Amino acid sequence: MAWSGWFVLLVALGILPIVLFDDPTWLLLWLILVTVVGIVDLLLAGSPRRLTLERRLPDRVRLGETVSSELLVTNAGRRRVRGIVRDGWQPSAGARPTRARINVPVGERRAITTALTPFRRGERRAAEVTVRSFGPLGLLARQASIAVPGAIRVLPAFNSRKHLPSRLARLRELDGRTSVMIRGQGTEFDSLREYVRGDDVRSIDWRATARRNDLVVRTWRPERDRRVVILIDSGRTSAARIANEPRIDTAFEASLLLAALATRAGDRVDVVIYDRRVRARVQGAVGADLLSRMVNAMAPVEPELIEVDWSRVPSLVRSVTSRHALVVLLTSVDSAGGSRGLLGMLPQLTRKHTVVVSSVTDPSVLEASRERGDRDAVYRAASAERAILDTARVSAAIRQLGADVVTGTPGDLPPALADRYIALKAAGRL
Amino acid sequence: MIAEPVTPTIRAATRRSLFWVIAIAFAVIVALITLIARGAASGGTPFSATNPAPAGSKAIAEVLKQQGVSVTVPSTFRAAESGLRAAAPSTLFLVDPDGHLTEARLRSLARLATHIVVLSPTFTQLKVLAPQVAAAGVVKKASLSSGCDLRAATNARTVTGTGTGYRLIVPGTDATACFGSGKSVFSLIDVRFGGRSVTVLGTTDALSNEHVSERGNAALALTLLGDSDRLVWYLPTIDDSVSGARSIAQLTPGWVGSVAALLILVAIAAAFWRGRRLGPLVVENLPVVVRASETMEGRARLYQRGGARLHALDSLRIGTIARLGSICGLPRLATVDEVIAAVVAITGRDAAAIRGLLVDAVPGTDRELVRLSDALLDLEQTAARDIRPTQSQPT
User: Fold this and answer.
1) Which residues in B lie closer than 8 A to residue A52 (C-beta atoms)?
2) How far is CA A202 from CA A70, A198, A199, A216, B299, in A?
3) pLDDT value, residue B395
4) DSSP, residue by residue, B179-219
5) Does residue A97 have a cis bond before it (omega within 30 degrees)?
6) In which order are the strands placed within the sheet that holds A51-56?
7) Phi, psi dihedrals of residue A296, rounded to the nearest 5°
8) DSSP symbols for A2-13
9) Is residue A37 classed exposed, middle or buried when 0-12, 13-18 and 19+ CB atoms within 10 A define those classes?
């Protein structure tokens, strides 16, 4: 049960008869009158329990975009239902408006449209719909919460897709250049075609020329069907926010751009999100299916406040592929102590695979190292220099173990990783 | 999707809360019964002739009634006056520790009664009834012996002493003082003037139901109060304090009480109107916000608190030397001496000064640390500028 401001006003109006007739019994009479009117109003209100509620909702939305969710309210009761409906979305689902007025005659159906603009990645849920149904006088209301579960999956924003066209152009360039028959590492035999003037004479295939009685050259193309294994660290360090974005979100951005690029280049991409156990895994997907499966797998993953178990990573990679692969580790290289597990494991990986370790750097550290205004700032600069030195030392150690290091600010890391991939592909190191 | 109500129906809610309602009702009833049962045994008005509690004095009043004394217990001043007027030789027992009676009313009572027994009188009461007597503080003796020839005192011999003491301040008064506790302080002073007498009594404990049976308390009380056939046992209440002035209830219109009650109900209704929640709260797990730069800030504050100036400066120097090396085009593994030589060659500054800045100087104070850090930054900028001849020597 609930009541409106009108009911409170009605109770307050009892002052008039009490003062006018100057008789305390009017207090009792008025209260009886108000109670009777209220009970009649409550009895005439339509039952919220007799409503049939149905939710129509897209099952996924990209972070930062807006979708509309529809709630269909069917009145299966015997009286008209008028009142307020609240759809109980989680706050970060960004539902607007949260309350709606309805007026559903018997046997009819109305739709309530709510715009959802989620501001956090993951599964956003709606638990209950609460209906407050007022009587014909609008004084008292019957209220009930009805469980209508609903969920929408909020996918990573993939803002770095703006870098994709330029990187694809570079990839095509790579394709075009190698088809001019420059034979080298990272290329494989493509086809035979007739010689045209300007072709490299070294790529003339004399055996075919002898068969065809015409000059024939071999063409080459970048190697295809290589394996790329992306391993995203979802451990404790990935929860830290850099430039108001958790490290893991930057890692997702970078891995999405890399996967989009690699799958267009004809390579096979597998993704594993791991801390002490596998949080998500995408294997064997190609083309557009890959990206949609990736964002779907990434959406509900949140960083866990535990240390990553690096010792199991080599066997994890082995379970994904037994062939030589490009293994991209999206983690953080901050301090020698924190990276000990990573450094101990790396030789096992670099023996068989090409390994790239990618880490987000904090632009505020670089800024702090330049600022020397007063005493506080100087100490902060010293600490920042120490942090930069630590990162540099860990990076050097990783390079010594035969792996490659890519670092960048949250905005720069995804394109930097994509560029490194293109460079490795051009060098034939996949 | 299946929609099912999660709010319990009225019937279900009643069934669920039935146990608690019954339990609370039971507890309230038990508490009430205990309160009523114990309320009879404690509290009540002290020295009231109708109060059977330990603090009351019903015992004395009842014994007096059995002895044939007519005891009247007036509840108002008018009733007390008319009770005194009814029969000429009458005793007034007056207990008014809160001083509800005005001087005029006390005077009119004093005119009407032949004998007044006033228990622990206030200053005003003493001034009007027995101006020769003054209060002399608290008496805490367990037992007092009579020490005078007043009939009530000789009957009693000893009484419980706890109460107030008094002394005579006008010598030569026709008065008897009994139950002395030293330093001419007495717990009972009987003053006579004209045909009347006023007994100022300080032994409060002696009259209560609790202690009346001890020592000679009962004898004292019964002799004092039963000396005439009529006893008016008067305990003034707050209603007797106002004479002539109209009370607040008389001044305000009759509907004020009802309106106030209604306004309280309106406030409760408004609270429920605003406080009623539209459905349960929706829970959500929020992520912890951990800024990555927090470790850097923490380390900076540690340096600062520990005064690790040299350590802080060394961190800055390592960064500067690495950057100078790359400015000068040296390999990453170049030694400090090579970097210093290259910087000297570029900037043309004194080698010893640069060496001091980059390696030797030890900052003694924070001010020196800031100065050295500024010098390091300046050296970097100078080196970067000097290595580009077109910029350093514009044509």
Assistant:
1) 3
2) 67, 11, 9, 11, 62
3) 46
4) EE-STT-EEEEEEEETTEEEEEE---GGGSTTTTTSTTHHH
5) yes
6) A51-56, A67-75, A109-116, A95-96
7) -65, -40
8) EE-HHHHHHHHT
9) middle
Report DSSP letters for B293-306, one per residue: THHHHHHHHHHHHH
Please give the mean pLDDT across all residues of chain A. Answer: 90
Residues in B closer than 8 angstroms to A364, CB to CB, are 293
Copy the structure tokens of residue A158: 């993939």
For B370, the closest of A146, A364, A375 (CB atoms) is: A375
CA distance A346 to chain B (A): 24
For A15, which of B259, B284, B366 is closest by C-beta distance?
B259
Of A148, A334, A379, the CB nearest to B1: A148
For B319, nearest residue in chain A (alpha carbons): A385
Where do you find CATH 3.40.50.410 in chain A?
Answer: 227-426
Quote the CA–CA distance of A99 and A4 in Å, as a whole number: 16
User: How far apart (Å, rounded) are the C-alpha atoms in residues A87 and A152?
Assistant: 14
Q: What is the DSSP letter of B360?
A: I
The CB-side HSE value for A427 (13 A sphere, CA atoms) comes to 9
Report residue B239 as tokens: 């209603």
Structure ipTM: 0.74
Output the six-digit token pair for A396: 């050097």
| Alpha carbon distance B304, B309 (integer Å) | 8
Q: Is the minimum CB–CB distance between B287 and chain A shorter than 8 Å?
A: yes
Half-sphere exposure of residue B219, counting CA atoms within 13 Å on the CB side? Answer: 15
CA dist list (Å): B172 to B45, B49, B132, B140, B198: 38, 36, 10, 28, 16
**In Å, how far from its chain's centre is CA A147?**
27
Instruction: Tell whether A43 is within 8 A of chain B (Cβ).
Output: no
Domains and CATH numbers, chain B: 58-239 (3.40.50), 301-392 (no CATH)
Q: Distance between CA atoms of A388 and A407, rounded to whole angstroms?
A: 12
Q: Alpha-carbon distance B166 to B199, whole Å?
A: 11
- Minimal Cα–Cα distance from A174 to chain B, Å? 32
Alpha-helix runs per DSSP H in A25-116: 25-44
Residues A237-295: pLDDT tens digits? 899 888 888 999 999 999 999 999 999 888 999 999 999 999 999 998 888 899 999 99
- Both tokens of B354, joined, read 């640069």
Give pLDDT tens digits for A147-203: 999 999 999 989 999 999 999 988 888 766 544 445 655 566 777 888 888 877 888
What gap in Å lies between CA B226 and CA B220, rounded to an integer?
10
| Count of CB pairs separated by less than 8 Å, A with B | 195
For residue A119, the tally of other CB atoms under 10 A from its CB is 12
Residue A55 CB partners (closer than 8 Å, separation 6+): A69, A70, A71, A72, A126, A148, A150, B1
Q: Which two tokens stand for residue A6?
A: 């009108």
CATH code of the domain made up of A53-155: 2.60.40.10
Contact A321, A227 (CB under 8 A): yes
Tell me what the pLDDT averaged over chain B comes to: 83
Helices then strands, counting H and E runs in chain A, come out as 12, 20
Per CB-CB distance under 8 Å, the chain A contacts of B262 are: 11-12, 14-15, 18, 27, 30
Burial class (CB in 10 A: 0-12, 13-18, 19+), A393: middle
How many Å separate Cα A429 from the centre of its chain?
30
Class of domain A227-426: alpha beta
Please name every residue paired with A154 in a beta bridge, in sequence order, or none if there are none. Answer: A61, A122
Number of Cβ within a 10 Å radius of residue A55: 17
Q: Rounded to an integer, what distance in angstroms lies between the CA atom of residue B385 and that of residue B395?
A: 15
Per-residue b or e along A368-377, where b marks 16 or more CB atoms closer than 10 Å to that residue's CB: bbeebeeeeb
